[in-house]
What we know:
By secondary structure, the protein is of the alpha+beta class.
Amino acid sequence: MTDNQTVQAYTEAWTQSIESISELVAPLPEDSWNRATECPGWSVRDVVSHVIAIESELLGDPRPIHSLPRDLRHVTTEFARYIELPVDKRRCHTSVELVGELEYTVIRRSRALRNAKHTPTEQVRWPAGPHSRELPYHELLRRRAFDVWVHEQDLRRALDAPGNLDSPAALVSRDVLLELLPRAVAHRAGAPAGTALVVDVTGPVEFLRTVRVDAGGLGTVDESISLAPDVQLTLDWETYVRLACGRGRPGPVTVEGDQELASRILANFSVTL
């Protein structure tokens, strides 16, 4: 695809996923908004508030003035405090207010994306609290499609409403998660030089990838087949996503090869903040 086609694809993936969230939560009864999700410390209400907050910030809306409690156990870093503040601010909002704000935010953000004049590689601000920085416009769109889809799945699991596991944003998310996997294996899990890890994922999104650690300790991932890997993990797509995003206790993973190394890799599989 050309750069402009890539921007369009990421925009369409984001649109499909965020509109799915809006459709999912609009008819919810009030008590469903308090259901816990697998996103640590967050309810359905909080996940929706987070999606609203990030898109609003990207629209240029000012961040709310709010004093964040110091006793929130899931808030352990300055980045987490930055993300939590607009979420906590909305905890007193009714479901009707949140649905209305989400729908209005989607309308505004969709219009802004349609009218955007950024080139695909133009540097734009990425809101990340104390770590705010600039990145290419196409990468910002990719990250938003990924983040919104992951939170859509958080909501679907909490509400027992599965769907969109093979949507356009799911494929974007696959690529994001695979891109981050080699570092988790080589650095966080400490896989030694020469290690080959095969990940065989089944289900709505299927793929087979090999992570290799070179002599310098650098991890890479490719589609080639390793006939005698040190470790092979076989799991379904939803389990892969939950593991890679640090969500709860995922379903079964079939492990072949070095069990001790496999345990270290699985313990460090999460690649999201």
